[in-house]
Recover the amino acids of this structure.
């Protein structure tokens, strides 16, 4: 009995020491790492702001057991996704504060492991853009959790370093841009035009940037177009996935011939982070670089005629010559926006200088 008594006393002392030691640790724990990246801030920002880009360089996505599910919004405020993993557990992340090209704040729920706040900041320094990745955690009143928090920096810090290194490589290997780049990395605004003919359509004169792409061209009658377009897009997606191509930006479709109801020649296109050689049935190259007029359409695809007509009218009123095939860029589309009235489409026409 004396031995048991001593054992119990010893255990009680150890527990008291651990509890006391735990309460001596900070309740709030922060992990922070930084990397300087030599690339335009908007380009770097978009690699974090767009969750579909972020998973390309995030160190945790290298976990082969991880299953990621994107929410309805994947870019900007409200963007969210969840994950399950045999190694990393389950959780979810949502962007709750976004300041363009400056800061992104996220709420992270690690479920049984608690909640945390993630922060990215983007600061101009002499050698480029300083990207800082921060994780703030409240370890609560549990002394064991506080002891665990003491080791957070050693556990999470190296993963942040890996992620920032991969982000740096990804951004610095992208094609150089000719001048300032907007958030979606495809154009710079030359002029914002007042509404045309009292419509609600917004028109801009822009200069687009050349970027690598992969595409698939097809032709059909107008009545066949919806079904054929879906099949072409799915075939392009499968080709990109099979060949592990790194995409960027929103999907597009070029229209080379528009002669309804008999003939429509169209080309679903995805921009890439680097030039590639493609197999039979697919095309690769560089997207158009130069002046264009652009209409911003909000709403369903069935209601796009007004925006196309407004763009035609503006180009004609300015005496611009259309120099190539027009295209549509689908910013908010069925894959990331469930409500058709909220679809966001940019319509472009390349024009003479």
């Amino acid at each position: 009995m004396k031995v048991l008594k001593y054992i119990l006393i010893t255990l009680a002392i150890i527990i008291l020491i651990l509890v006391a030691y735990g309460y001596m640790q900070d309740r709030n724990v922060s992990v922070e790492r930084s990397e300087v990246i030599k690339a335009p801030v908007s380009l770097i920002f978009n690699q974090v702001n767009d969750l579909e880009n972020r998973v390309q360089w995030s160190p945790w996505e290298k976990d082969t057991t991880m299953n990621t599910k994107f929410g309805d919004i994947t870019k900007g405020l409200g963007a969210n996704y969840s994950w399950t993993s045999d190694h990393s557990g389950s959780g979810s992340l949502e962007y709750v504060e976004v300041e363009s090209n400056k800061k992104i704040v996220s709420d992270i729920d690690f479920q049984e492991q608690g909640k945390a706040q993630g922060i990215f900041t983007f600061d101009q320094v002499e050698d480029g853009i300083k990207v800082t990745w921060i994780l703030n955690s409240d370890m609560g009143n549990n002394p064991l959790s506080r002891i665990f928090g003491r080791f957070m920096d050693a556990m999470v810090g190296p993963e942040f370093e890996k992620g920032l290194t991969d982000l740096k490589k990804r951004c610095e290997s992208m094609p150089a841009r000719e001048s300032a780049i907007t958030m979606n990395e495809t154009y710079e605004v030359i002029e914002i035009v007042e509404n045309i003919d009292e419509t609600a359509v917004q028109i801009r004169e822009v200069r687009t940037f050349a970027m690598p792409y992969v595409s698939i061209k097809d032709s059909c009658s107008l009545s066949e177009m919806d079904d054929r377009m879906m099949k072409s897009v799915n075939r392009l997606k499968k080709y990109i996935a099979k060949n592990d191509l790194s995409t960027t930006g929103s999907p597009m479709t070029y229209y080379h011939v528009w002669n309804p109801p008999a003939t429509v020649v169209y080309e679903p296109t995805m921009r890439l982070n680097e030039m590639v050689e493609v197999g039979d049935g697919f095309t690769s190259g560089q997207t158009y670089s130069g002046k264009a007029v652009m209409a911003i359409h909000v709403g369903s695809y069935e209601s796009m005629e007004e925006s196309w007509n407004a763009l035609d009218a503006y180009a004609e009123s300015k005496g611009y010559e259309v120099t190539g095939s027009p295209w549509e860029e689908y910013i908010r589309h069925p894959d990331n926006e469930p409500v058709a009235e909220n679809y966001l489409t940019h319509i472009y026409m390349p024009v003479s200088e």
